[in-house]
Each structure stands twice: as C-alpha cells, then as structure tokens.
Amino acid sequence: MLPLLKIPDGSGAIIAELATRDHKVIRKMSSLGIVPGVSVTVLRKSPAVLLQCGHTKIALDRSLASLIYVK
Amino acid sequence: MLTVALVGNPNVGKSVLFYHLTGNYATVSNYPGTTVEVSCGRTNLSGRTCLVYDTPGIYSFSPVSEEEAVTRRLLWEARPNLVVHVADAKNLPRMLPLTLELLAAGLNVILVLNMMDEAEKLGVRIRRAELSRRLGIPVLQAAFACGRGLAELRREMAACLLGGKAGSRICREHPLAAEAGLCLKSKYPFAAPLVARLYLEQDKEIQAAVAAAEDKSVLADCLARFADELAGREAGFFAVWRYREAEKLLAGVFHSGNEKNRGGLADKLTLDPLWGVLPAAFLLYAGLYLIVGRFGAGFLVDMIEGVLLGEVILPKITAWLSVLSGWPSVLSLLAGEFGLLTLGLRYALGVVMPIVGTYFFFFALLEDSGYLPRLAYLADAGLKKLGLGGRAVIPLALGFGCGTMAVLVTRVLESRRERLIATFLLALAVPCSAQLGLIMALLSREPSALLLWAAVMGGMFFLAGSMLNLLLPGRPAQFFLELPPLRRPALQAILQKTMARMRWYFAEVVPVFCAVSLVLWLLQHTGGLDVVTSALAPLLGCMGLPPELGRVFLAGFFRRDYGAAGLFDLYREGALSAGQLLVAAVVLSLFLPCLAQLAMMIRERGLAASVLIACAVALLAAAAGILLRILLCLPAL
Known about the structure:
The complex is a heterodimer of chains A (71) and B (637).
Chain A: E1 2-3, E2 12-18, H1 23-31, E3 39-44, E4 49-53, E5 56-60, H2 62-65, E6 68-70
Antiparallel strand pairs in A: 1-6, 2-3, 2-6, 3-4, 4-5
Chain B: E1 2-7, H1 14-22, E2 39-45, E3 48-54, H2 66-78, E4 82-88, H3 92-104, E5 109-114, H4 116-121, E6 125-126, H5 128-135, E7 139-141, H6 150-162, H7 175-181, H8 192-200, H9 204-213, H10 216-231, H11 237-250, E8 254-255, H12 265-271, H13 277-321, H14 328-335, H15 340-368, H16 372-384, H17 393-399, H18 403-409, H19 416-428, H20 433-443, H21 447-471, E9 480-483, H22 491-526, H23 528-542, H24 549-558, H25 560-572, H26 578-590, H27 595-605, H28 607-631
Parallel strand pairs in B: 1-3, 1-4, 4-5, 5-7
Antiparallel strand pairs in B: 2-3, 6-8
Helix pairs in contact in B: 3-11, 7-8, 8-9, 13-15, 13-20, 15-20, 15-22, 17-18, 18-27, 19-21, 19-27, 19-28, 20-25, 20-26, 21-26, 23-24, 24-25, 25-26, 26-28, 27-28
C-alpha cells in the first residue's frame, strides 16, 4: 500500500484506504466515487491532483489527495 | 396533487428534462451548482396534472454543500409520490449508490439512464431489462438533450403514479443499519434503517429530528450501542458497502467500454498551469473586453439608448406628455431629471439591458463549453490564499454578470467561512457587468486609467481576501470537483439560458430602477437630495471629487450599475477630469453593494453579517479613494 501522491503521472491503481475518520471528508470522497476498491488513473499532480475515474475526470487538492492510499 | 421530484447528480440532465416536462426553464449548464433552488412546474400525465420539482444535484443523502441539503430537505418534507432518478449512463457505477439510497428511503423510484448517446459513443453497453429486474424498479434509457426517451418516460411515470404500480420492497440498507432502525419508535418521512444510518453517520439535521421524536433511552441505549459498534469499522463503512452493492447489481449488466483518457491538446490547454494562461487570457479579452465592453457597452448601448430611445422613442413620449404641462410635478415625475421614463426605464432598457444581456450570453457560452470547472482546477491554488477553493470561481465569475445572482450561487461553496469570504469579495471588488461595461466605456479612451483601475480592483480583491483568510477562524476549504468533458455549446441552449437569466434579472431590476427614480424624485422635491449631497461633500472633497458625485453614489447604492450610469452621464457632460474619473470609478466600483444584492446578502448570510460587510466595504472604498487621490497627486476639494 502506498500514498496516491507517490504514483507517477499516467499510471493506474486501486484505492485501498482513506486515511481519515472525518465523516465530512469521507462524504466528499465518496460523493465523487473515491471509495476503496475503485480503480483510478493519476493524470497529473499539479497544480492540483487530477484523476480519471471511470469516464470522468476528478480534481482534488493535495490535502485531500494525501489521504488516499492505493495498491 | 400528485408530486414528482427529479433527482440526481449535478450535470446529468435534470433541468433539461424539467424543461421538456413543464416548459419552464431552470438554468441548466455544464457544472454543478446552476440549480441552487428547487424549481417547480406542472405537467400533464394521462389527463392528470402533476407537480414536478427540479432539484439541485446531489451525490448522496449525506449533503456536503448547502444546495445538496436543499434537495434532501425537499425529499424529507414534501415526500414526493414519485422520484425520477436521472443518471449519467456512462458513469452508472458511480450513480447507482444514490438509487440505492432513494430506495432505502422508501421512495417510489424510476431510474433513467440519460446521455445514452454519449455513452454509446464510448462503447458503454447496459442490459436495461436485467438491471430493472434486479432493482425491482423501471429503468429507462434516454438522451434528453436530443429528445430521446421522453415519451417512454411519460408513459412510465403515468403508470407508476396512476396505475398504482408498487415500488421496490427490497431493503437497500446494510444489515447493521436495518438492525439499528429497529431502535426507532417514531415514524419518519424516510424508512427507519436509512434514518438510523444517517443518525449513526452524525448527520446533524437527522440527529436533531431523531432527538426530538424519540425517548432519551432510545438514543442513550439502543442507538449508542450501534454507534460503538460502528466506531470499530473502517472509515466510510456504509458508503463502501453501497458501492459494493452497486457493483454486484451491475455485474454482467454494465460494460464500461473504453475508459482511456481522451483529451489530448484540449486538456493540455485547459489543465496545464502554464498553457492554461492562454485560453484564460483569451477569454478575458474576447469575452469581457470585446463582447461585453466593445459590443455590449459600446455598440448596443449607442444603438438602443442613443438612437432608438434617445432620438426616436423618448422625444415622442416627451411630446405626448406635454399635455401634462399644467401639472409640473407630475411631468417631472415621469419625464424630468429623475423621471420614471427618462431615467428609470431609459437606464434599465437602454444601458443595463444590452450590457447585462451580452455578459449573460458570454457566461452561458463559457458554462456550456465545460470550461469553468477547468478554470476552477487551475485557480484553486491561488484562491486558497484568499481562503477560498477552486469552486469559488463559479460565483465569482457570475458576479461579473450580476452580484445579486452570484450571492445566491455562493451556496455551491461548502463552508460558512468560504461563503462569507466570497460574499464579501462580491460586495467589494467584483464589479457587475453593467458597471464593468460602463466603466470600460468610460475609461477606454484612457488606456492607462483602465489598467490602473483594473490594478486597484485586483489589488483590493487580493488584499481583502488575504486579510479575511488571516482574520477569520478556520482553514481554507478543501477542493474537490468533477470535470465534465469539453463540449461544443449549442446556440439554442445558450440563447434559452441567456433569456432565462435575463427574465430573472428583469423581474429584480426594473422595479428597483423605477423605485430608485421615485425615491430620487421625492428627495429632489423635498430638498433631501441636497442634504445628503452636502453631507457627502466633505468626504468626496477628501477624494478630490466634486459634490455632484454625491447623487451618483447615492444612486449607486440602490443599484451599482445605476450609479455607474450616472457617472457615465457626468463624464459626457465634461464635469470630471481624467484623474477624477479614475478615482470616482474606483470608489464607485468598490462602494457598497447595490440594494438588490444587499437584500440577497441578508437573506443568505443574515442581517448582522450583512451590515458588517456593508460597513467594511464602505470604509475600504473611502480609504481607497483618498489614498488613490494622494498617489495621483490630485488636489483635495
């Protein structure tokens, strides 16, 4: 398991865990489809993190993205 | 009356469907947050009139922003007879968890897989009948933007509402929630397992409702036991479970096709921080300067206000009104310096309408192309320094059209702190299009003045934002947003949207314009105008401005664009030097929000916060005016 922010641009991974117990943060993530078990591709990490998730692109700032761990 | 609610994620086509069903147009577009209030219309199903609600987009029953809370409240309070869940077909795995929650609430649901045309292009295949069987509810395929699937949906709606077709009876909550639901003794608008689950997820509104309805023992013993059990589970336990359930339901039914990222050059240009400057700068120049400034405030105003009203219509009206010459005060009320016709209607139709109209057209173009969320992505880091996130791009950009509308749209922001900062900046440093157009027309003969004006406004924007970020407790909001694909906007949709916004604007603006004319006329007749003007004179003197500007600022409070229009007149009469014009333009742009915006602020932010904001804005505007006068070496008067 490693942090999403350590993944090189353009590579895919499966979300393993969200490192928070904050209900609000979890709500935000799951509203966008970021829940354990979902596969994503990291498109770019600056100025904010951009993920391809299914047929959509999802933007997250680094503080949120740093909570995502993938495998 | 039978009621139907259209529910779904943002940007899946609810408002287009609403339009097809009711003929009403709630503003639709390609980003979350356009529908921030519930719209309501009527439709006819097999001869029975039904009430249809168009709701702001929600992702789940656990609202993150105020607009989402609005939708859940509607479902809770109005308990519609039927819910049409509109989903984006290509992203069905992300949409289905909401269907499960709607079913868990005990609502009667039809699932519509919309945007099938887009999905088919991407190679998505869905076995509709099998999905319908597994869910136990009707599932339809549609592409509302091109009218596909509408007739079928109407038939299905009629069957569900009038034919007494029963909804799904399968429990769609985790067994733990179902068990916790048994604790609840009272009856709620949603089924007990869902209410219990939201309670356990620490949903404030539901907790309050449960606490009010249940005995203390239920909370302290029964539900507390489940809360303890949940504490041992992984984060987002129930959400993960819903996604798993959706996955199971979709196994063998949904084929995702090719998910490869296909953006290429367009993505590079809109998402790369370096290249991204190019389209942003181009849009600023083409949209604000060429379309709004030159075409709207220049050409259209000259044509409508100068030629059509000024030379053709108003002289005729004045001639007809000369029969009233026996009653000079009535004549001046209608056609005098502050006359209802000569001032109120002339400004509303001749000056403000063309400018605001062209801005709304430009903004609709921007929205429908899907560019705004990308701009939000690029601007996030910068806006964080002002305590805002990328999302704030939406209300701020709309603020350049109409600040009143923008204050309403701050609902898309998630924290109170962020909404407060955005409201403050909208009141202080975001000039509305009517103001912007007039100021550009005023200053365009002096390019250096225009640049200076823009620099002062930008400086104030960043200064005020950073100060608020420092002073207010809390931290900048976290940014997360879905970026829809770039699409070629359809002209018809843009025109419809522009018209819908114009109607909204006119319902607000024309009465205010007429009221302002009336108040100014009254003040002039009673001598009150001179009192106010002379009271303002020393302050204006400090800024090096002549006392006649007093009435312009007074008008500016009633409507900012109205004040700018007054400035426009003074300049044309040659009453101001270039330096004075710059100071006046800056102060008027920063000055108090207009009356309509203030009313909206009070509605959205509360009275105390609004009064505080208004006072701070007035002080900052005066300070900036005095400072600028000193820097420009203008004499005080």
